């Protein structure tokens, strides 16, 4: 009989927490005992796991006794507060917040890219930013082949990236707009219904947002490529689920679209959807619910005189590969 592991999910009632529970079940992770942890107001509710009801418990500093792996998705403040108790109890914390991502002592892992980094953990492993994960899954195989030097990204991030409240606001405002009712943004800074907001997270002194700088810094750390030049604009779009990104890449060596398609068609975690004549390309509606990142619109950068530039468009489910699936994959490596 294979070994089973006692698993805790912190933030079990959130959008990512629920996906984590479903992903553990769908991937048949060897769960011995499952402990669902959330705030006091959620305690006592029940969630399904493998056909049985599991009662949600209030998160306390004593919650990790007997736990082997703790999947955290309850925000950075909760992660920072409960990390010492989790590690002290002997559990390995896989954290979905930004709290520890850039900590030199904490591995930042995407299993398709740097699974070996898991070995260096000291009780905490960080799950990267959702947009970063989707980007490196598609970009890293190309970096290995041709040496990525510079990347310019524009993201089209779904409302689910902001959690259940973000999706609820999009549904509500769409209904209000169609019924000609007044709109009062509650959750986003501006109206999200039939609109785009080029602002995710807080603005920093360099006029980039924190979300944009996450993609700059995290991509370098995951790919072990500290010299990579990255610039990014992150945009919230009126899409329910799955993020998309337009990527412009400059390589040290020449690489053709045909080579890119060939490399990505063999790459783990990527599905090439690139047949413009048949109107086939990555779209969030198709990426929703999928484990793989969709890659397409692959073409030579016409602004260059050489063949060292590639443009590409990707879509991926940021609740799954961008969060819950990536965390469970890290647990599988453990």
Level-1 CATH class name of the largest domain: Alpha Beta
Mean of all residue-level pLDDT scores: 97
Number of helices: 8
Radius of gyration: 20 Å
CATH topology category name of the largest domain = Dihydrodipicolinate Reductase, domain 2
Query: What is the CATH architecture assignment of the largest domain?
Result: 2-Layer Sandwich
Give a short account of the largest sheet.
7 strands, mixed
Q: List low-confidence stretches.
A: none
Strand content: 15-25%
By secondary-structure content and strand pairing, the structural class works out as alpha/beta
**Strand element count:** 13
Assembly state of the chains shown: single chain
- The helix/strand order is EHEEEEHEEHEHHEEHEHEEH
Shape: globular
CATH homologous superfamily name of the largest domain?
Answer: Dihydrodipicolinate Reductase, domain 2
Helical content class: 25-40%
Short characterization:
The chain contains eight helices and 13 strands. By secondary structure, the protein is of the alpha/beta class.
